[in-house]
Write a structure and sequence with these properties.
The protein is an alpha+beta fold. The chain contains 3 helices and 9 strands. The strands form 2 sheets. A 5-stranded mixed beta sheet has the order 2-8-6-7-9. A 4-stranded antiparallel beta sheet has the order 1-3-4-5, with no helix packed on it. A hairpin with a 2-residue loop joins strand 3 and strand 4. The N and C termini lie far apart (75 Å).
Length: 157
């Protein structure tokens, strides 16, 4: 990939520069395409595996920790989204850069209650109704109230 006068060499250090990665990945891609066209190899799967679902994030005081992530640099065009990494304790990752989204409380947009991220009640919240909060103060300032925990059963009951 000769650069010549097309792209200045100072841009090589920019984290958004991906042309070297693209050039490096081009060889195995072309090899796979040729093999598939010649039917000598079944490297191309007719049905790609389903992508992990992502949901729009409703963060209050919470963002992706990676400041170079596209959700920060291209915020006008890319909305904040999340991918669930685990349900208990609840962990969410940014689908663009895979950094963990750090939050202290999670709320339900339908019940308007908020819970600790390691609460079993979080399992009842559908991902599309999750709202992430930095802490209890942010949750309550957004109009969410703390979920009432059921009182423990009396001994011997």
């Amino acid at each position: 990939m000769p650069r010549r006068d097309e792209i200045h060499s100072e841009l090589d250090a920019d984290p958004r520069s991906v042309y070297f990665k693209q050039a490096a990945r081009g060889v195995p891609i072309r090899m796979a395409l040729l093999a598939a066209l010649l039917e000598s190899d079944s490297t191309l799967d007719p049905e790609p595996p389903a992508a992990e679902p992502t949901w729009p994030a409703q963060p209050v005081g919470v963002t992706c920790a990676n400041q170079r992530c596209i959700c920060h640099t291209e915020a006008r065009h890319v909305g904040m989204r999340f991918r669930l990494a685990s349900r208990l304790p609840l962990r969410a990752h940014c689908p663009y850069c895979s950094h963990e989204i750090v939050f202290g409380r999670v709320g339900c947009s339908t019940t308007r209650h908020h819970h600790a991220r390691d609460s079993r009640d979080v399992l009842k919240i559908r991902p599309e109704h999750m709202v992430f909060f930095r802490d209890e103060l942010h949750a309550e300032s957004a109009g969410f109230e703390a979920a009432r925990t059921p009182s423990p059963a009396p001994p011997g009951a």
